[in-house]
Amino acid sequence: MRVVVLLSPAKTLNWATSPASLSGLWSQPKLLQATDPVVEVMRRKKKADLKKLMSISDNIADLNMERFKKFLGSSEVEKMSTAVDLVADVARPAALAFDGPAYRGMDAATFTEEDWAFGARSVRLLSGLYGVLRPTDLIQPYRLEMGSRVAVAGMKDLYEYWKGNIAQCILEGIQGDGSVKSGTDEFLVVNVASQEYSKAVDFEQLENAGGKVVTCVFKDDGRVLSVFAKRARGLLARHVVVNRAKDVADLESFSAEGYRLDRSQCGDGLLVFTRSKAQRAAPTKSAMAAKAQAKPKGKAKAMAEAAPEAKVPSTAARGKKRAAAGAGAGATKKKAATATGASTTSGKRGAPSAGGKRGSKSKSKKA
Q: Is the pLDDT of residue 29 over 90?
């Protein structure tokens, strides 16, 4: 049975360099053209409008005004020669760009190439700007929550604008590779998205097409605690990917960080995973020990703290950068033709540490 997990996005973004060795896996959002009208509406918003719309500070309003101003439309993205060019300039794979608790739980930075390929088939990230995304889809920095009251193309809000599009896009992805035939095979939709984002999905449309919808709930000491539940959603998405989940039984085996299925609380279309404070503490202590071992010391720590945040260059800056790169390449070839005994070295990405993180990591930027 085909399994598809639905996950909310994150407000916080991490624009660390994506692994170039996997650039062949990156993809463009399926609803990219439908994103254009939303961007145009947001570009017309004034600073005061953004502050009121998203309940944000002056600085974050300024940041997002600049983001929408520089945002590349679908036609501009299509002109980029390769995904590598887009990543180098303005975009990142969605599963690496989002940096909230759920995405730290999913930890896509440690995915293998096979994990990324399976995740592209089995995980869908809901978005107020893009509608729905695969983990491999390249996104530009933005902030726009699904619950924002934004009227687009005659629709009163983003729910009305995206609802039919999201469900249809999910179905096309499921049926497009031939793994599920319309009206004949069942597939499993695993909802771990928040209520705000779940409302944007037409689950009835998915069920009418043969989908079985299962919602997963995560409780700590008998209650849903947001700070832990968000991370658990990402942990479950990771469980589906790395274990190549194919049915409900595979979901029920989820046991990351002390969670266990509580059958007494489960019902039709509902799986409830619980853990106690003691069960929560055990994996936390292990993670803290691993983090302490990987923590830089002395000079290395000072250098890491001084590292600047990555910034999205303007269109003019990108043009100058390419021109300079071309001129530099020509000079290098000329010099190499006359020099003797020269040698070159190439840098390599840092290997995963004991904590599961790759090499160095840039600071996260609050969206």
A: yes
Q: What's the confidence (pLDDT) of residue 40?
A: 98
Over range 312-337, report the average pLDDT: 47
SS (H, E, C) the chain: CEEEEEECCCCCECCCCCCHHHHHHCECCCCHHHHHHHHHHHHCCCHHHHHHHHCCCHHHHHHHHHHHHHCCCHHHHHHCCCHHHHHHHCCEEHHHHECCHHHHHHCHHHCCHHHHHHHHHHEEEEECCCEEECCCEEECCCCCCCCCCCCECCECCHHHHHHHHHHHHHHHHHHHCCCCCCCCCCEEEEECCCHHHHCCCCHHHHHHCCEEEEEEEEEECCECCHHHHHHHHHHHHHHHHHCCCCCHHHHHCCCHHHCEECHHHCECCEEEEEECHHHHHHHHHHHHHHHHHHCCCHHHHHHHHHCCCCCCCCHHHHHHHHHHHHHHHHHHHHHHHHCCCCCCCCCCCCCECCCCCECCCCCCECC
Q: Where are the domains of the chain?
A: 2-16+26-281
CA distance 118 to 104: 19
Which residues, other chains included, contact 141 with Cβ-Cβ below 8 Å and sequence gap of 6+?
Answer: 13, 15, 67, 90, 97, 312, 365, 367
The burial of 312, by beta-carbon neighbours within 10 Å (0-12 exposed, 13-18 middle, 19 or more buried), is given as middle
How close are the terminal C-alpha atoms of the chain, in Å?
37
Q: What is the mean pLDDT of residues 329-352?
A: 40
- Strand 270-275 versus strand 260-261 pairing type: antiparallel
Place of tokens 């990219």: 32
pLDDT at 197: 98
Full-model pTM: 0.77
Spacing of C-alpha 46 from chain mean position = 28
Which one is predicted more confidently, 92 or 356?
92
Q: Do the beta carbons of residue 274 and residue 222 sit within 8 Å?
A: yes
Q: What is the dihedral of CA 334, 339, 341, 347, to 10 degrees?
A: -30
pLDDT digits (tens, 9 = 90+) for 57-67: 999 999 999 99
Torsion angle, CA of 347/355/260/118, rounded to 10 degrees? 0
